[in-house]
Amino acid sequence: MNILAFFSHPDDVEFLCGGTLLKYKKAGHHIFIALTTSGNIGSNVLVGREKIAAVREQEQLEAAKFFDAKVRFLRYNDEGLVDSEQLRRDVINAIRWAQPDVIFTNSPEDRSTDHNVTATVVGRVLLSLVGKNVPSDEKPMTKFPTLFYCDTSAGIHFVPEVYVDITDEYEEKIKALQCHVSQISWMSEYEDQGFTDSCRIHNEFRGLQAGCKYAEAFAAFRLHGVMPDFKLLP
Ligand SMILES: [Zn+2]
Q1: Per the domain annotation, does 63 fall within a domain?
Q2: How remote is the CA of residue 75 from the centroid of ligand 1, in Å?
Q3: Residue pLDDT, tens place only, 126-158
Q4: Is the per-residue pLDDT at 188 higher than 80?
Q5: How far is the CA of 36 from the centre of ligand 1 (A)?
Q6: Ligand 1 centroid, distance to 131 Cα (angstroms)
Q7: Distance 128 CA to ligand 1 centre (A)
Q8: Buried b (16+ CB within 10 A) or exposed e, 87-101
Q9: Which runs of E-coded beta strand occur in the chain?
Q10: Are 108 and 10 in contact (CB under 8 A)?
Q11: Which residue, of 87, 118, 145, 149, is most buried by count of CB atoms within 10 Å of its CB?
């Protein structure tokens, strides 16, 4: 299968579904990553949007090696994402590029602007993926993928529907997350927990709910004719 992780910022992928992607990779599936923004205001140490984006894209490419993933950057401005015709076209292009069986994205319940808009637009374009008259540079899909929303930041407003036990993948997930070196200082701007500590607390809490040591939590997108296939989860 092809698995697409479609998120807002470098580090969202590893934080929110890194363990699940490692399970897919071990099973021989193909991983794709698409990011709407390159997180170009996510630093108070680096100076300038171009510099921040360049550093964070490189960090994302390093992290992607853990999943043998192909990466596509849409390069919208961080915290500036709005639903627009151009964004929808770029999102459709990116999904068609990956031809996914399963998509993971942020949650539309997330009050982070970029997380919210990315999640909303990925869901909104789903019916267009198979349309031959939808403008796109990539070829239309012939089937609808299953779309899973990932956890929100700190799990606020998110009600999990299904869990993936990532206990065996947890250590490797943290190594992938640690590729995002620039975010260690940035996250300390608004969290008392350390960058990897907040991830551990999150995955331990979802593990507590699910009955295992570490877990990632998901909820499925539903629309008439586009029902989720839970059996596709690893
Ligand atoms: Zn994010």
Answers
A1: yes
A2: 14
A3: 999 999 888 888 999 999 999 999 999 899 999
A4: no
A5: 10
A6: 30
A7: 25
A8: bbbbbbbbbbbbbbb
A9: 2-7, 30-37, 70-76, 102-105, 146-150, 162-165, 215-220
A10: no
A11: 118
**Cα distances (angstroms) measured from residue 32 to each of 80, 98, 103:** 24, 6, 9
In a domain, 229, yes or no: no
The owner of tokens 């031809």 is: 99
Q: What distance in angstroms lies between residue 202's CA and the mean position of ligand 1's atoms? A: 15
Structural domain contains residue 234: no
Q: Is residue 233 part of a domain?
A: no
Chain segment 124-134, per-residue pLDDT in tens: 999 999 998 88
pLDDT attached to residue 42: 86
pLDDT at 190 exceeding the cut of 80: no
Note the pLDDT tens digit of each residue in 40-91.
988 888 889 999 999 999 999 999 999 999 999 999 999 989 999 999 999 9
Element (H, E) at 205: helix 195-210
User: How many domains does one find in the chain?
Assistant: 1
Which range of residues forms the domain containing residue 167?
Answer: 2-222
CATH number at residue 89: 3.40.50.10320
Span from the CA of 56 to the centroid of ligand 1 (angstroms): 12
- Residue 177, phi then psi, degrees to nearest 5: -60, -35
Cα of 142 from ligand 1 centre, angstroms: 30
Compute the distance from residue 224 Cα to the ligand 1 centre, in Å: 29
Model confidence, pTM: 0.96
